[in-house]
Write a structure and sequence with these properties.
InterPro entries: FLVCR1-2_SLC49-like (IPR049680), MFS (IPR011701), MFS_trans_sf (IPR036259). It comes from Bugula neritina. By secondary structure, this protein is mainly α. It folds into two domains: 67 residues; 212 residues, MFS general substrate transporter like domains (Growth Hormone, Chain: A, Up-down Bundle). α5 packs antiparallel against α13 and α5 packs antiparallel against α14.
Length: 306
């Protein structure tokens, strides 16, 4: 949640730290921009990178100074069970087909969407949305991710054996929302000019709630499927896959024709969201850790060995 909150703050601070504002007209005339303007853009980008490096350094120092290895007592009964060692856990994850179905169903749309949302100033130029407004759209979308994650965690805590169904519902909703957005961008759906900004806010926040709000559910399902692999290793692989899909999205910009015409970006998000439900339908749920917790509640006389 802290990561998404930080991403939201970045949407607000980056335009002011960089001091640069690129309009749709500048993009159209990118081959005739003055050297002074290009120099300002380069300086602005460097300022953003330096600011990010400073924040990362402070965070690293805080971890070095104090980061507890584990809680003083096991938080649950399943945490007292022995976990596989690192290499055995890696082998187990690589051979777990249902885990990979979940991994791709989660990270393909999530990694793509979270690579797409920072570029919303580029995405919405055709709709007349300026860079500052796009930054606020990104900020509210990321903050809604934090709120959505907390809410969904509370809801799923009361219906733990319905996680797959919840993810299918959220994935379907995100597909519909992004499909509406791309239809508006392509002018298949008419929206009055004075209402465009409000519609963009509503659709982006709704998509972020559905896609990023489901993150705790996917991590919980991943740990259930991978048990007895250590949760830290399972979540690390999920995070790595997420970053890889996001990086692949950015690598598409190395193709000159696609970098010049960015209409494909939202279509990619729609396509990746469309893959979520089919992949989850083939995935078989397991509740190994939850079964241990339930057995403990039904047998109060059993003691926990640590």
């Amino acid at each position: 949640m802290s990561g998404y909150a930080g991403s939201g703050v970045a949407f607000l601070t980056s335009p002011y730290i960089s001091g640069a504002n690129v309009t749709a007209k500048d993009v159209e005339n990118r081959n005739s921009l003055s050297k002074e303007f290009v120099g300002e853009l380069q300086t602005g980008i460097q300022n953003v990178v330096y600011f990010g490096a400073a924040i990362a350094t402070v965070s690293f120092l805080m971890i070095v100074i104090y980061f507890p290895p584990r809680p003083p007592t096991p938080p649950s009964r399943s945490q007292t069970r022995e976990r596989e060692d690192f290499w055995s856990g890696i082998k187990h994850l690589l051979q777990n087909g249902h885990f990979w179905l979940l991994n791709i169903a989660f990270n393909l749309p999530n990694g793509t969407f979270n690579a797409w949302i920072p570029l919303c100033s580029v995405n919405f130029r055709s709709l007349g949305v300026d860079e500052v407004t796009a930054g606020w759209v990104g900020f509210t979308s990321m903050i809604s991710s934090v709120i959505g994650s907390v809410v969904m965690s509370a809801v799923i805590d009361r219906m733990k054996r319905r996680m797959k169904l919840s993810c299918i519902i959220l994935g379907t909703l995100s597909l519909v929302i992004l499909a509406i957005l791309v239809c508006i961008q392509e002018h298949y759906i008419y929206v009055p000019k004075e209402a465009v900004t409000a519609v963009v806010y509503v659709l982006c926040i709704s998509a972020s709630l559905c896609i990023n709000g489901a993150i705790p559910i996917y991590y919980e399902m991943g740990c259930e499927l991978a048990f007895p692999v250590h949760e830290g290793l399972t979540c690390s692989l999920l995070t790595l896959t997420n970053n890889l899909f996001g990086m692949m999205f950015f690598l598409i910009f190395l193709v000159p024709s696609l970098a010049a015409n960015t209409e494909w970006m939202t279509w990619v998000c729609v396509g990746t969201c469309g893959l979520t439900t089919p992949l989850l339908l083939f995935m078989k749920e397991r509740f190994s850790r939850l079964d241990i917790e339930d057995s403990g509640r039904s047998s109060p006389s059993v003691t926990i060995e640590t």
